[in-house]
Give the backbone structure.
Amino acid sequence: MAKITPRNASDREVVSVRTKAKQDSNGSYKWWKEDTKAMRGAKLVETAAFLKEQLQFRYRQASIYSRLYANMPLFGMAGTSLNRLSQNNQLPLDRPTMNVVQSCVDTLVSRITQSRPRPVFLTDNGDYKARNLAKKLNQFVMGEFYRTKAYDAGTAALRDAAVLGTGCLKIFEGQDNKVQIERVLFTELLVDPNDSLYGDPRQMYQLKLVDREVLIEMFPDKKNDILRTEQAFPDTAGDSARTASDQVMVIEGWHLPSGPDADDGRHIIACTNVCLLDEEYKKEKFPFVFVHYSQRLLGFFGQSLAEQLMGTQVEINKLLMTISRSINLVGVPRVFVEDGSKVVKAQLNNDVGSIVTYRGTKPVYEVAPCVPAEVYAQLQRLVDYAYQQSGISALSAASKKPAGLDSGAALREYDDLQSDRFATLSKRYDNFYVELAYQVIDLAKDIAERDGKYTTVYPNKNGTREVNLPEADLLKDTYIIQCFDASSLPRDPAGRMQKIIEMIQSGMVDIKEGRRMLDFPDLDQEEKLANSGEERILYVLDKIIEEGDYTPPDPFMDLNLAIQLSNQYYNLYMPTKLEEDRSEMLRTFNAQCIALQQAAQPPMPAAPAAPAQQLANPEPLPTSPLIPQT
């Protein structure tokens, strides 16, 4: 049995250790609650660095998907060396390629972006002023889309969505105090996975490389701090540092208000060593608009077409490599010479018309079967499956039409069948522009309230004109935005012509309107001349309704059409509380048109003199056997 020796309590040594209090893991990243501007900026940088470290898988995925599309990985945004994927590329450069991912993405983007969604402000039972304001807002939105090249940026965003899963545009105020739109890459945005579990994050961060001189111009009071900021590169690879540019990493963060009356909304722009901007943020949305190719069940970012086709594309690459190797190794001509036959091998050369002498058995040239037919069949099945999975016709990808579809009606029906496959994505693309219109109007309104006015250039068929942002509460009460296609007619010329002919034959439109709807470039001048009379009358009537500017009619107008249109304008706007002075202008315009029309009529010819009236012969008296005759 072990012996236990008792120990006196006085012999014990007591060691006291004082540790730090456990830090709250959630509170450590609540940068918007810090006391000072410098602390909030530093905490924002720390939070962004933490999230970037936790979301490294997103950068690897994005690099893989971008390589599937364009054979080039994305940069790791100053922290991840993703060009190692290029260095580890084991595939030979002269390998055969069949990039169905790029084919499907380009065809999809080209097809959906052929139509330009047009956001339109509508009023719910609004009066004349509300309708007129909505019309000005429509012109203003289209002017801003024209100035910022929104449709070009939207096309790039849709391609990003097809390749990376999510496309994004940022709406911000530029250095010229105008609304600006720029494309934001998938790898520049950070959201917490738990915060964005249901697709509605409360915080969002953007990492962006900005030229040092540009940043100094944006924040001249922080010049010395910006000059001391360390230089940043797209990733940590050695080649990234070999550059002539001087860029710094800028972190921008937003925290949405917790409620309508909450004051915890915050917007901060910071570098690694200085907080450049710290302001309260009262808006309910981030200054971004997103389009997802396929929304996931959980999470904020979407699934891409490249991700869906990744397995099929990899298998196609394997089969192409197998076919190429088999042909190079086996599929070459071989000469079989019988052993003992007297054949001079030097005569078996590449010369044209060379003479080969032999004795005994003649040399035999043979090419061994190198690739079974099943391999080619499997390759074709995979290619067909890739197009079927993406919903794209292989004929559309090759810019071909099915055999036998020659009439405009048949082409129109075929086009509609293909459009049904992308109806959901097209709807998301339309909503993308609706949200963009809201964001543009909202930011323009803030600039107008600060500077007093905001103007843009609106393009129309008569050139361009300057449009002021209406001074009103734009996005409340009765105003809603719906999105319409720039044209609901078929896009191909044959289908468009057939549809318009049917509309003319049914009486829905007249020939003039049909010519305008054709919108063929080679008929543009003829269409302008043919419709110039109607366009001038509409211009005069619009000036009366919108600005109260009256222009009297003249004999060069189509007076019959002017009378008809002025009657229609009067009946259209009278129920909408049109001002009395403008109503009187419409009545005056109509009356003057009638007067000019009557004045242009030739005088009535004088009526010929009536001939002398001859007395009618008296009728003979009636006779009857009952009446005695005298």
Observations:
- The mean pLDDT is 79.
- The CA atoms of residues 196 and 285 lie 14 Å apart.
